[in-house]
């Protein structure tokens, strides 16, 4: 398969977005369903500010999306491809 320059850059940026353990842990929690920053922060033992910072990058890469309800912001995975990518990567690192 031949990649265009743009596709190669986008793919590299995707893998870069997944190169941080905190972001991977956030994705693992969002696989369970939509949740708030405060819940993620508590579960990950991180500050809400740190979680928000990581979510901003994941949102820019279209890995997560946000939904506002009043003053609360709820995050979820953008689509099933994110779940598949996570599970394939996990299978790879747990193999052998």
Can you tell me about this structure?
By secondary structure, the protein is of the alpha+beta class. The chain has one domain (5-94): Winged helix-like DNA-binding domain superfamily/Winged helix DNA-binding domain (Arc Repressor Mutant, subunit A, Orthogonal Bundle), CATH 1.10.10. Helix content is 61%, strand content 15%. It is built from 5 helices and 3 strands; from the N terminus they run ααβααββα. Strands 1-3-2 form a 3-stranded antiparallel beta sheet. Strand 2 (64-69) and strand 3 form a beta hairpin. Helix 3 crosses helix 4. The two termini are 27 Å apart.
Name its key features.
single chain, 96 residues, alpha+beta, 3-stranded antiparallel sheet, 5 helices
